[in-house]
Inverse folding.
């Protein structure tokens, strides 16, 4: 398809996903597992009626704004709120002294407070919160708050962080036991150094330093929270927080902890979330502030972050500097992989302790190595805290490793796809670090993208384009990856289920599912509906889902680590099956047949041997309610503890792992350094696609986000920014440059590559119906596939992201492959 | 941004604004510096139009605006002063469905799986609607250009473009 301007971008359509291993029955089904149906909330979203957090307002509601630090690292000498409090319309102001309790998503690293106590740690750290009659008044009050600072040593990069932290003046966060280190993890499996030495003699070894810049989630919905109180002031009433969070359960716990009230007095309601990607997966200042201000004023209080504040809340991808050594024997078998990784963590720990582990623990499959070691250290710096962004901690090392596989293949004269096939871990195997890999469709994924992209015919042969466009060169690159479907161990140690679902049926024919799972757009409510249709035979219009309200729904730990479909799915399956048996039994009793001779499907109960005989599911539910009384059931999912038998061996251990392969086609303009990612073929093994349209959406969205990290996105601070005068850079040290969706570039409909998504199904016994994750895995290998394609196009290897035109051009010039411009 | 008649900004100038939104005529007292998005969301309760950035970068606030007798066109309501809508007709996402039926654009977005979180989609669908009113059978590049002011972070745009193409193949609902 041509866009009329002569750039023959590959067509988006038809890109309808090829179901490689699915049964025909599934594709023909209109609802239930594998159906290409509509989302349960699709029509409401299409109509603009879905109510997101900021769409709620309440009588008498006040508005909250936050006073934020202008210094990267400073002691707070004094905060003067008198003038602000005196403004008409200002009802309350709180500071760190009002909420001094430390919290943190990881129980062992509780190192932050809702509002700064004693010192600030980044430009944008929250200091005070105002409740006023409207946002304009609240903003005026924020401006009237006076803060006196005493500057400390700003620690703004990894090298400074490594050198400092031994004095109170240069220690970013007091939680650091040593220097500015949040966490160091060093694990080694097998004779890594011996294997590397052997491969140096006979085989191939590559050794390079890679750098992955920080990126952020940039969901289109800003964070928003509303605090509400019930009951007499100072009494034992209820505190409710409505919030755009992806972890209502952890928010529930931390609100009680920080507010100093029992968990039973806290209710968290999470409305549908307008995108999150990991950016809303821990509590934030606004949630504590609105709750406390509501308790003080007795009125509803809302806080809506500005777009700038969304950037400052961050918790995005860690910048990582990674020294990788990768060794293979002369046949191409991977003998050793060794990495030393520095993570630039920002001002608070966030999930950082886990991030340091994930930087190493998720790299050991589906391409496997004989020995492996990693040494990852996360440092505190005076910048917004990094945390989990889609593909938590594992995207950066995957980039380095998969580029190294490409380099080894070249050295050994092997096709890069063959090298991956040769080193496939296999299925139902224990990986070098003790993780147990169940099903893996890596080979099927590689086959699918190899075939679809025309790899064998085209790779290495694209070269320069026809005359007139001679400055542009095309290439193909491949990469693969794996990801977890939830973690075997919850964030805080406990023996309770990780996900619970309650189901209610009644004589109306309605099925209602109650689940604590967070629908952040990925469609978890639709997965619940699909499972109810499959198990109880009802039509989609008879299913209602009530989700993520801690007063109404059982606990689910949240939408992170790609855990929801597997864990919530199991819980829903268990609850629905219990009811199905009751319904079948009641109908069988009425018909005088055996329970198993009653089938449920297409909105009816059927006699197995006589399809003329059927009643509606509503009639069947009436029979069941008459026979068994009020109908309801519960289901829960808990993992079986497993993982490596060593300290840290549980981190990265998952019930099931997805596999992915990407092939990217790029066009590099050797005159301007501009890279166009023309097309990406991606095949993802999600076990079983419970809702294939949603799976495709996750694959396409992940691939798009990954592609953007290659050529667009970069969290830039102060002195790093091009064109900022030195004097000014010093003054603005640690200040995020361009915290807007204009300056921080996410793809528009004109920027992204065409994505051709293939679903591969290798069901895993640990997943409901065999299902594994699809939400994060398909991001990982996008990045190395593109970087490897750039190498195929121009023969220049890039080790640092993003591949901005300036960086690409510099790389091309260094290798003398740039096309001179007219001026030269 | 919400407004109250107390407080330090109470002396700002207000004006009576007359406008038509989704066929309903309204008279609203608005602060002169307030945007159309603020009036729609906070004074008229039409929360389907979203605030993603409040500075014209994301397009989630897109609505259709028409002067009398003119064709309606997409505008960023967060960059449009409410008083500039005086006497004009505004279409928000709440006004897209007609006679109780989803507009073909809405139906196609739902059917194709273009609605993930849905937050950007009110604006996205209105941009698509404006394109199809202007050009009933657009090419794919024309769709990409027409939607390039509406950021979506969930979908990678594939299903949005597919949905817009699908909507273009369907007849308009009866007027």
């Amino acid at each position: 398809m041509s866009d009329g301007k002569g750039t023959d971008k590959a067509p988006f359509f038809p890109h309808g996903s090829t179901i490689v291993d699915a049964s025909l029955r599934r594709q023909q089904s209109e609802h239930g597992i594998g159906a290409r149906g509509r989302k349960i909330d699709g029509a409401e979203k299409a109509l603009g009626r879905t109510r997101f957090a900021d769409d709620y307002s309440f009588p008498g509601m006040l508005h909250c704004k936050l006073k934020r630090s202008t210094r990267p690292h400073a002691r707070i000498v004094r905060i003067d709120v008198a003038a602000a409090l005196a403004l008409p319309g200002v009802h309350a102001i709180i500071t760190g002294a009002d909420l001094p309790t430390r919290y943190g998503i990881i129980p062992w690293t509780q190192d932050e407070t809702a509002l700064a106590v004693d010192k600030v740690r980044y430009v944008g750290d929250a200091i005070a919160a105002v409740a006023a009659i409207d946002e304009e008044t609240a903003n005026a009050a924020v401006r009237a708050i006076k803060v006196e600072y005493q500057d400390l040593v700003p620690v703004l990069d990894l090298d400074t962080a490594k050198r400092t932290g031994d004095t109170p003046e240069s220690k970013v966060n007091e939680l650091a036991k040593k220097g500015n280190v949040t966490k160091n993890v060093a694990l080694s499996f097998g004779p890594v150094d011996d294997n590397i030495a052997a491969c140096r003699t006979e085989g191939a070894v590559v050794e390079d330093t890679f750098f992955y810049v920080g990126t952020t989630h940039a969901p289109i919905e800003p964070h928003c929270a509303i605090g509400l109180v019930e009951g007499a002031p100072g009494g034992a009433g209820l505190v409710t927080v409505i919030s755009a969070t992806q972890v209502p359960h952890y928010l529930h716990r931390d609100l009680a902890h920080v507010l100093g009230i029992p968990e039973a007095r806290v209710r968290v309601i999470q409305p549908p979330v307008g995108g999150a990607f990991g950016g809303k997966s821990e509590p934030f200042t606004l949630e504590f502030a609105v709750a406390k201000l509501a308790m003080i004023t007795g009125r509803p209080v809302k806080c809506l972050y500005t777009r700038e504040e969304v950037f400052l809340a961050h918790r995005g991808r860690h910048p990582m500097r990674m020294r990788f050594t990768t060794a293979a024997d002369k046949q191409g078998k991977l003998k050793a992989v060794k990495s030393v990784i520095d993570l630039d963590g920002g001002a608070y720990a966030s999930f950082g302790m886990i991030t340091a582990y994930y930087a190493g623990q998720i790299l050991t499959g589906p391409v496997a190595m004989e020995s492996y070691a990693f040494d990852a250290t996360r440092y505190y710096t005076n910048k917004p805290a990094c945390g989990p962004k889609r593909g938590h901690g594992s995207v950066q090392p995957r980039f380095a490793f998969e580029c190294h596989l490409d380099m080894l293949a070249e050295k050994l004269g092997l096709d890069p796809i063959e090298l991956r096939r040769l080193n496939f871990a296999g299925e139902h195997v224990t990986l070098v670090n003790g993780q147990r890999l169940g099903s893996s469709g890596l080979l099927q994924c590689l086959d699918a993208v190899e075939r679809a992209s025309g790899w064998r015919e085209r790779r290495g042969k694209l070269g320069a384009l026809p005359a007139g466009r001679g400055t542009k060169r095309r290439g193909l690159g491949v990469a693969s990856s794996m990801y977890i479907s939830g973690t075997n161990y919850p964030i805080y140690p406990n023996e309770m289920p990780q996900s619970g679902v309650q189901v209610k049926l009644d004589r109306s024919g309605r099925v209602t599912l109650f689940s604590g799972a967070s629908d952040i757009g990925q469609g978890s409510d639709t997965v619940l509906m699909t499972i109810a249709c499959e198990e109880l035979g009802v039509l989609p219009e008879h299913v209602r889902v009530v989700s993520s309200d801690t007063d109404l729904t059982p606990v689910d730990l949240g939408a992170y680590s790609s855990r929801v479909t597997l864990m919530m799915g199991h819980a829903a399956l268990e609850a629905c099956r219990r009811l199905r048996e009751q319904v079948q039994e009641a109908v069988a009793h009425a018909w005088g047949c055996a329970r198993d001779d009653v089938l449920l499907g297409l909105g009816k109960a059927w006699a197995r041997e006589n399809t003329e005989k059927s009643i509606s599911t509503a009639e069947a539910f009436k029979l069941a309610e008459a026979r068994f009384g009020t109908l309801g059931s519960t289901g829960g999912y808990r993992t079986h503890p497993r993982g490596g038998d060593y300290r840290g061996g549980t981190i990265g251990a998952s019930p099931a792992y997805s596999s992915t392969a990407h092939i990217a086609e790029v066009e590099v303009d050797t005159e301007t350094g501009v890279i166009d990612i023309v097309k990406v073929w991606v095949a993802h093994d999600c076990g079983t696609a419970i809702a294939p349209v949603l799976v495709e959406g996750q694959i396409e969205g992940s691939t798009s986000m990954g592609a953007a990290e290659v050529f667009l996105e970069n969290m830039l601070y102060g002195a790093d920014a091009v064109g900022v005068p030195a004097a000014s850079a010093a003054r603005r040290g640690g200040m995020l440059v361009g915290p807007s969706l204009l300056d921080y570039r996410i793809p528009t409909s004109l920027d992204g590559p065409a994505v051709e998504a293939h679903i591969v199904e290798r069901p895993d016994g640990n997943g409901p119906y065999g299902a594994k994750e699809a939400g994060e895995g398909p991001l990982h290998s996008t990045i190395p596939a593109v970087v490897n394609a750039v190498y195929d196009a121009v023969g220049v290897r890039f080790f640092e992201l993003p591949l901005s035109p300036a960086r690409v051009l510099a790389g091309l010039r260094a290798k003398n492959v740039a096309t001179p411009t007219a001026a030269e | 941004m919400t407004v109250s008649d107390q407080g330090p900004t109470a002396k700002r100038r207000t004006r009576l604004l007359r406008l038509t939104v989704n066929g309903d005529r309204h008279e609203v007292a608005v602060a002169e510096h307030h945007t159309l998005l603020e009036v729609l969301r906070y004074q008229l309760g039409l929360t389907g139009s979203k605030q993603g950035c409040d500075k014209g970068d994301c397009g989630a606030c897109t609505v259709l605006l028409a002067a009398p007798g003119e064709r309606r066109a997409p505008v960023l309501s967060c960059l449009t002063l409410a008083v500039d809508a005086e006497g004009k007709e505004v279409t928000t996402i709440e006004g897209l469905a007609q006679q109780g039926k989803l507009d073909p654009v809405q139906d196609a977005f739902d059917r194709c799986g273009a609605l993930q979180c849905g937050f950007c989609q009110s604006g996205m669908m209105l941009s698509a609607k404006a394109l199809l009113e202007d050009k009933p059978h657009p090419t794919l590049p024309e769709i990409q250009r027409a939607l390039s002011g509406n950021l979506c972070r969930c979908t990678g745009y594939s299903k949005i473009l597919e949905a817009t193409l699908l909507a273009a193949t369907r007849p308009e609902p009866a007027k």
